[in-house]
Design goal:
Length: about 300
């Protein structure tokens, strides 16, 4: 077992687990676009420095620009807007449990795009994870499914973000085979930051920056330096050194970290339905990630 790579993956997952809480805190003082722009302004600097230190800071080929731009829009601009806007009304713990379903969408993409077959237990895992999400968003009151009045707008935005990340992850795999992870993520994040900058400059976000108090800045610095900087570097380094399934297994810890941090920082209540739903999701994801001999499921961070 590669201990160094495992530590990197564990660090990234712990940081990402706490990121939902940090985002929730920062959103008390600034709009989602402002938070995302500040976060990735720092992240681009960190990744740029890391890329330069590794002597990988070279201009991408013209043929790769469109590819990096697409990934930047999907994985940074659109994805982070979905999650940040979703967290305005969704709980941090609910968000973490929903995001944990990303491997389910990865499996479905494999079925649809790569014509991969799913074993019976994997299909059962998909249904289990779906049931777990329904338990969480309805707070255990499954009867409200008949009325259509369940969950918040944020819950549904976060669910879309999980689907979006699955698409982003699938598209990223081919690029990671050709480019060093740090350099690729630097260009992807740079494009995402540029697209976000357009939105940021069209709003009053610049004036919001001067009114953010110290606790808001601590949350934003954590998001920028650790979540968008170091965690991305460590995760992709681990992904290149460890088997995909082994790296993806660390993601089971992410919602658990969120639950613990959210209860301490945000005093979010932990409902029995959320506990049962969360466990059901993790069991479902575990089943999906036990691929048959002809199937390989790819997992990525959120």
């Amino acid at each position: 077992m590669n201990i160094k790579a495992s530590i990197k993956a564990l660090f990234a997952v712990i940081v990402w687990g706490a990121s939902f809480v940090a985002t929730k805190v920062s959103l008390q003082y600034a709009d989602p676009i402002t938070v995302v722009w500040l976060r990735f302004s720092m992240g681009v600097c960190i990744l740029g420095l890391a890329t330069a230190l590794k002597r990988q800071l070279i201009l991408p080929a013209r043929k790769d620009l469109g590819y990096f731009a697409l990934l930047g829009f999907l994985g940074i601009t659109f994805h982070q807007w979905l999650q940040s806007t979703g967290l305005l009304t969704a709980q941090a713990t609910t968000t973490a449990w929903i995001v944990a379903t990303t491997p389910i969408f990865m499996a479905l993409l494999g079925l649809i795009m790569l014509k991969e077959n799913l074993a019976l237990y994997q299909v059962a895992g998909i249904f289990l994870a779906t049931f777990g999400v329904l338990l969480i968003v309805t707070k255990g009151e499954l009867s409200v499914l008949t009325t259509g009045k369940f969950g918040t707008t944020g819950d549904f935005l976060v669910l879309i973000s999980a689907m979006n990340w699955a698409v982003f992850s699938t598209l990223s795999r081919s690029g990671l085979k050709k480019h060093p992870a740090t350099r690729m993520m630097f260009y992807v994040m740079s494009f995402g930051w540029l697209f976000t900058s357009i939105l940021f400059l069209s709003t009053s976000g610049l004036w919001e920056i001067f009114s953010i108090p110290w606790d808001g800045w601590i949350a934003i610095l954590f998001l920028g330096l650790f979540c968008s900087g170091l965690a991305y570097i460590f995760w992709y380094d681990a992904l290149k050194e460890l088997p995909v399934a082994q790296t993806g297994a660390f993601l089971y810890l992410e919602p658990i970290v969120t639950v613990i941090v959210a209860s301490i920082v945000l005093a979010e209540s932990f409902l029995l339905a959320s506990a049962i739903g969360g466990i059901t999701i993790l069991v479902g994801v575990w089943l999906v990630n036990r691929p048959s001999k002809s199937t390989q499921i790819i997992e990525e961070p959120t």
